[in-house]
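Re: that backbone. Tokens:
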């Protein structure tokens, strides 16, 4: 009672006035916290982060719904544990607040935003976003593996999303590398097809014109031959008619007694010789015309074969040259192993990211 009188003056509590009561409570609380720390060491506090790290994960997300429930329940137990040492208010604030901050970003664009802006000038450490993986993928064939891994490891996405971003960027890079040579190959094929079609069309027209001319010329020659045959036939027919007239005239002379038997026989012999000569001349003309027709047919056949073979050879040579260049481009495209190389590099990075995510960190 004397102590109580000593610290009380009237209605004023001196201990409360000068804050000694809070000081004593805090000293006691700190002593209990020190004892708690000596008993459980840093591992108890490190396990606060390990609870989240070791939470169950699923294929879709890194913390499964069951893992979320486990984290909340474990944090409640931890909150009760620390509250026995530092009090309910501090225990709740120190642990549950960490969980609540993960559920609320209400201050992110004002107070927290200002604080982040200020601290980022000296201590900026915002993790990269998924666009970094896309950018790495676009030059995946030119970046060193560990450098790429160091850039994408801090990205706060699942390994599947990072892999897709890498593949998307690598696909863009692959299309960029192949686009020029593919365009050249396609353009060469288009030119080849156009020229081949043009040559084939020209060859078709040339052959058609040549055949038309050959047919028309052959028809004209045949007409000329027919004319020659008719002219020769008419000439020889006229000759035979004349010889027949001579035969009848000599017969009339013989009947009239103007010529004797000897003279008559002589003239008959002359007419017979003239007839044989005329028939022989006719045969010679027909043989010459037949030989001329044969030479013409053979010449036409030879010219036709030469024209066709020349055109076919020219087209084949042209196509062979174009195909050689096209095959070189095709072989160059096939020889490019960028597709496999980029895929393997992306998969290796994906495997390392998964290994990173599973290995975790030690907070002890």
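Recovered sequence:
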């Amino acid at each position: 009672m004397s102590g109580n009188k000593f610290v009380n003056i009237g209605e004023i509590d001196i201990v409360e006035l000068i804050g000694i009561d809070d000081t004593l409570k805090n000293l006691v609380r700190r002593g209990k916290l020190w004892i708690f720390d000596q008993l459980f060491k840093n591992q108890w506090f490190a396990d606060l982060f390990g609870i989240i790290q070791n939470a169950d994960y699923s294929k879709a997300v890194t913390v499964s719904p069951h893992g979320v429930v486990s984290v909340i329940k474990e944090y409640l137990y931890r909150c009760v544990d620390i509250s026995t040492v530092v009090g309910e208010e501090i225990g709740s604030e120190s642990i549950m607040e960490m969980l609540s901050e993960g559920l609320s970003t209400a201050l992110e664009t004002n107070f927290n935003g200002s604080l982040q802006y200020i601290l980022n000038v000296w201590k900026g450490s915002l993790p990269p976003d998924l666009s970094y993986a896309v950018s790495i993928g676009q030059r995946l064939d030119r970046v060193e593996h560990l450098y790429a891994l160091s850039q994408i490891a801090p990205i706060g996405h699942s390994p599947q999303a990072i892999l897709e971003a890498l593949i998307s960027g690598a696909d863009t890079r692959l299309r960029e590398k192949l686009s020029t040579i593919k365009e050249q190959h396609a353009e060469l094929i288009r030119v080849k097809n156009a020229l081949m079609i043009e040559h084939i069309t020209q060859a078709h027209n040339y052959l058609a014109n040549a055949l038309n001319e050959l047919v028309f010329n052959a028809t004209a020659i045949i007409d000329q031959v027919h004319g020659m045959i008719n002219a020769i036939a008419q000439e020889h027919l006229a000759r035979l008619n004349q010889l027949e007239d001579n035969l009848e005239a000599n017969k009339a002379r013989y009947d009239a007694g103007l010529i004797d038997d000897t003279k008559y026989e002589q003239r008959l012999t002359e007419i017979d010789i003239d007839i044989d000569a005329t028939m022989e001349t006719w045969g010679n003309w027909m043989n010459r015309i037949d030989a001329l027709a044969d030479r013409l047919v053979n010449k036409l056949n030879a010219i036709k074969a030469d024209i066709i073979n020349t055109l076919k050879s020219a087209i084949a040579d042209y196509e062979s040259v174009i195909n050689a260049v096209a095959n070189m481009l095709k072989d160059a495209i096939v020889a490019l192993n960028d597709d496999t190389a980029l895929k393997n590099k992306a998969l290796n990075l994906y495997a390392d990211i998964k290994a990173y995510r599973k290995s975790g960190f030690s907070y002890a």
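Residues 217 and 223 are 10 Å apart (CA to CA). The chain has eleven helices and two strands.
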